[in-house]
Amino acid sequence: MSEPSGGFPDLRIVPVADLLLHERVDLERVTRLIDRLSADGILKNPPIVASLPGSDRFLLLDGANRVSAIQNLDIPHLIVQVEPFENEKLEVRHWNHVVRDIEARELLRKAREMPGVSVREGRPEDSTEEGFLASVTTEEDRSLLLFDRGSRADRVEHLHAVVDVYYRGEARMDRVNHADVAALRQHHPHFGALVSFPDFAKSEVRAVAEGGHLLPSGVTRILVPRRVLGFNLRLPLLKSNLPLEEKRRWLAEEMRHKVSEHKVRYYQEPTFVFDD
User: Fold this and answer.
1) Domains delineated in the chain
2) Model-level pTM greater than 0.70?
């Protein structure tokens, strides 16, 4: 077994009610997760949370759809991977969205009609101004920048208005972590535009969550120093009426068992996962 510096990740079983979401869930994905979890009864990958200074709650960073599915199955406790909020290696970035041409035209039309939102031409990488909301790079390689210099609540509302143009309809939206339009045209036959968002500071994500202004689903991208995959925890344990402390003792024993059976591996290299 190859072990990372600093020991194993911090895995805990916590009450679902102690998790603080920062983004909306994708109801279609939640429905599929409910069906899969009900069928096989296994949670493969623990959601990732941050322990918050001055709070007993945890900021949910990755896994909102899994948490929502667990809640719908009336499961009171959940296994999570806990990272310190202050960890400099824990970063919040952003996803970019690839949309078809029809949604791109509708998006730009609606953006110009949004009160408090200004639109002008420019390149996404050139925008460092306060209030930068998003950019739209079209098939013709023309980029338009959207700005909203209102309150945090206003910006979140307008982010939803932007994303809802293509997220809630019949559009096909793909999340990507780069802005290479030439490559996107090659790999996305339906390419119409690339919608790019700014990075979010961790403090801003916490403020959004604690203020009840959830960000759109699929906008924030969380970079963690390490990520636990394939723990494969059976849900009947989490759903049982056993006391929380007893469930936590079971988890500690299960960790010791996995280590002694050489069932833990650490891969430091960047990884592509197919057919996930």
Assistant:
1) 10-91+223-260 (3.90.1530.10), 96-196 (3.30.1760)
2) yes
